[in-house]
Design brief:
By secondary structure, this protein is of the alpha/beta class. 32% of the residues lie in helices and 25% in strands. The chain has three helices and five strands, in the order αβββαβαβ.
Length: 139
């Protein structure tokens, strides 16, 4: 009997410890679009980096090579932007990363959902001089 009540107390304390964090939603935020060759992920955040809403081509139900299409990017960006707009986001700076196909269509979908796009910046990481090449082969 005592063991059962102890387990219930542990479950209650675990729930109390994992409270849902509160995100401060301003009218001005950031939109991070990560477009890889396999998928596209859109995250809408406030200026301190806390995620307000997110979506991806895979979350929208696209599988395989269809995830890297402009249409899938449009659907994912529209879904994330609609949730953020309903939460109170009005204007965003867009940061695009990666070489994927749906970069432009994701930005257009964000703009069409009612969110004002203030700035677009490409933050794709570029190697300055690349990795160190392997040693010359000795035979």
């Amino acid at each position: 009997m005592a063991k059962a009540t102890q387990q219930q107390q542990q479950q209650v304390s675990a729930k109390a410890a994992s409270k849902k964090r509160v995100v401060k939603i301003d009218t001005y935020g950031d939109a991070h679009v990560t477009a890889s060759f396999n998928n596209l992920i859109v995250s809408l955040t406030n200026k301190s980096g806390q995620v307000i809403s997110w979506s991806s081509a895979g979350k929208m139900g696209f599988k395989g090579s269809k995830k890297n299409t402009p249409y899938a990017a449009q659907m994912a960006a529209g879904d994330a932007a609609k949730k953020a707009f309903d939460a109170g986001l009005k204007r965003v700076d867009v940061f695009v990363k990666g070489p994927g196909a749906g970069r432009e269509s994701a930005i257009r979908a964000i703009a069409q959902s009612g969110i004002d796009v203030v700035m677009i910046k490409d933050v794709t990481p570029l190697p300055h001089n690349g990795c160190r090449p392997p040693n010359k082969r000795r035979v």
